[in-house]
Amino acid sequence: MLFLISLIGIVYSTQLTLVKPSLIVPSTKNDSIPVNVADFGYVPYGRSVSGNLTYIENTCNPLNITLNSTIVLTMGSSCKFLSQAMNVQLAGAKMLVIVYNHEEDISNFLLIAEYGSEQSFIPTMMINKVDGEFLIEKLKSFPDIQVSVTFELKQQKIVDLQYFLSSFDVFSYLFLEEFFPFAKQMINQLTFNPIYIQFYCKECEKTGYKATNQNCISGGRYCAQDPDLDGPLTGREVIMEDLRQLCILQQNDLITWWNYMILFNQFCFNDYQDCPSTIMKSISINETKINYCITDSFTGNDTLYDDNIILKEQRQQIMRNHQVYWPSLFINGEFYKGDLFLNNVDESTIFNVDDFAVLEAICDAFLAEFRPQLCDTTGFFSIKEGELTDQKSPIITVLIWVGISLFICFFLFASFLLIRRMMLKKVRDDIGSQVDNHLKNYFRMPQAQ
């Protein structure tokens, strides 16, 4: 399932550039078109994608053609954008550009795919209707229009990560678990700031935040969705757990917070009541200090009505980033677009580190001279108990064994030929010796007579 979520205020800097022929886009008065990159697929940060533009009016159904690494331009339609991307990908395209079929500005929307759906390995993006119609018209006169898109992030010595999440959202923990072994190795070269998504009660605001709501605290200033609907938990527990996790980060180092998050994901979703306390004890977090941090963050003694300093700061960060979608990541202040997770990874999954798209983007956000050594790691790994385990690809393993087997066969065959040659030589030498003896005896016989 694909969602189109309004995100007023976000500006996307990625441009589709017309390389040749030389054309001027009426809407921008230059040779570039602003694009909105989809938040799914593989986005090759630090690189460019170039190719000839091919217009296909409808990409909702499988294409019975070979596209030979072209860039496909298509109209938006009622089918899912991800389905369109999969169809052109299977036909051999290297990128998909979708023309938005409404007059609204594309910068007001975010294109995302639900986790667990099919995985696209090409970048997908959207352009405004007026720019798309311009390209479609020009392709009639210039069938060989070449375009290029460069995917860049702001680079810094220390990379700044802002991660938007919710404490009771299972998908929020996937990135944390998968990126944890990498984060530990570059911990001194990162700043990591978790920002917990929250809402507020508009009706409560009108009454001066004097009302109570089971999904809110502080009179309705900070609210969350009910995590289990008819279950025992409410949005209030979600907000209080958000606050607990923020206090754990304030009172401890980042790795301790990260360990708590991973354990929370493993044990607390099915039985929440005493789980946070049990986890904190297991990893030596001072629960008394955390409880004091929670209490002290309120401006008064009543959590139901009084404001909260920590959550107020979180609200301000959400508003600064105009962000309402989670889990999501900002890298050096720029909204990361593309796959955030490994594809259904678990402890038994072997993955190629080069295919972890978000790691590649984070590495590209370092200035070249400060790029961590980890960013040059290649090969196959699995994640177990928060650690990277070097693995051999099954294909490589098979090839190694095939190579060993071929070497053994070659060695045995060469040995056979050598032994056979030596035996034949010995036989020839023995026969030759016997022939010489017989000839000598033959020539001696007349003399004997």
TrEMBL record:
Chief localization: membrane
Localization per record: Endomembrane system; Membrane
UniProtKB keywords: Glycoprotein, Membrane, Repeat, Signal, Transmembrane, Transmembrane helix
GO cellular component, one term: endomembrane system
Record-annotated membrane-spanning stretches: 398-419
Membrane topology, record value: Single-pass membrane protein; Single-pass type I membrane protein
Presence of keyword DNA repair: no
Annotated ranges, domain Vacuolar sorting receptor thioredoxin-like: 175-345
Domain PA per the UniProt entry, residue ranges: 66-133
Stored InterPro entries: PA_domain, VSR_TRX
The protein, known as: PA domain-containing protein
Organism this protein belongs to: Paramecium sonneborni
